Structures are given as structure tokens and as C-alpha cells.
Amino acid sequence: MNELTEAVEQAYLRAEHHLGRVFVRPHVRLDLRGQRAGVAYLGRNLLRFNERMLQDNREDFLRQTVPHEVAHLVAHALYGGNIRPHGYQWQKLMVEVFGLEPRRCHDYAVPERRRTHYYYQCGCPAPISFTPQRHAWAGRGRRYQCRRCGDLLKFTGKLQFA
Ligand SMILES: [Zn+2]
Ligand SMILES: [Zn+2]
Questions:
Q1: Whole-model pTM?
Q2: How remote is the CA of residue 114 from the centroid of ligand 1, in Å?
Q3: 41-97 pLDDT, tens per residue?
Q4: CA of 91, nearest ligand number
Q5: Ligand 1 centre and the CA of 69: distance in Å?
């Protein structure tokens, strides 16, 4: 987190130096999950970053993703809410302030969703894995039948975190 807030601060100092004005620092959170590396919440002056992607792509993340998201907030502070997120104002900041190619998307590998498998058994030798959603429905009384042997599937009590 220190490295991240430091990179955010460096990006702001750079923007202030180039643009000759000060910007209110955003809140920075490291609680983003899923497919996006970072998200800038313009109205709330908030940046959320993806911790897993930061860990897996540290150098590039600090060098590219952080300025990318900071540029969104800076563009918002400069031009208000009626600009396109990756429009020319944002692109200009990326190129002129940060010296970066104004790429719209990160190209990190998207981490696979971690999910829990719940194992159900019927008359067949191999257990069948249920998703958390399906397991929840079964818990609420929905009945599932094996397509091969026709038995009702019963929860084995076993689960696995993949
Ligand atoms: Zn963006
Ligand atoms: Zn079966």
C-alpha cells in the first residue's frame, strides 16, 4: 500500500508541476476485485486499485495504471464532468504530463475468479461439483437429479477452494 500511495503522490506532484496548480488528493483504496486494474470515481475523488494485479504486475502497474487513473481525476478537476473518460483531455494529460501512451485498457492477465466448489454425490462414482449459487439453492430446498443415474444429488459436506 505504501508503494501505491507513493506512486499516486508522485503522479500528483508531476501533474502539479506541469500544470501549475494544486489538486486535492484522492482517497486511495486497494479493494478492487475482478477484471479491472483500477477505477477512478470522479465525483467522490476516490481511486480503487486491484491488489492482486498490483502484486502480479508491480512495476508496470505503478508506472502505467496509477498515472492512468490519476489522469482521470486530474482531467475531471480541470475540465469537469462533461468530458469523455478517455477523450482528448485525458489523452493529452497522459502524453504531456506523464509521458505515457494513452492506452485505454490494461493488458494484464485477468486473475481467475477464486471460487468454492461444493461436492455432491449420487449413485455415480465421481462426485459432482456445485457452484456456490447452486449450493445455496440446494440449501433452500431445490432438488437436483443426476442426469446419468437419476439419483438425487446430496451434499457430501466436502468443499474445496480453488
Ligand atoms: Zn481509464
Ligand atoms: Zn449419478
A1: 0.67
A2: 25
A3: 998 999 999 999 999 999 999 999 999 999 999 999 999 988 988 999 999 999 999
A4: 1
A5: 6
Select from 97, 125, 144 the last residue of a domain.
Answer: 97
In a domain, 146, yes or no: yes
Q: How far is the CA of 116 from the centre of ligand 1 (A)?
A: 31
Are the beta carbons of 123 and 75 closer than 8 angstroms? Answer: no
Q: Which ligand is nearest to the CA of 120?
A: 2
Picking from 45, 66, 97, the residue at the C-terminal end of a domain is: 97
Q: Which three cell numbers stand for residue 28?
A: 486511495
CB distance 94 to 101 below 8 Å:
yes
Q: Which ligand is nearest to the CA of 152?
A: 2
Q: How far, in Å, is the centroid of ligand 1 from the Cα of 8?
A: 15
Q: Tell me which residues are annotated as active site.
A: 69
CA of 76 to the centre of ligand 1 (A): 12
Which structural domain range is residue 131 located in? 116-161
Q: Which of 25-34, 110-119, 121-130 has the lowest mean pLDDT?
A: 110-119
Sequence-distant (≥ 6) Cβ neighbours of residue 2 within 8 angstroms? none
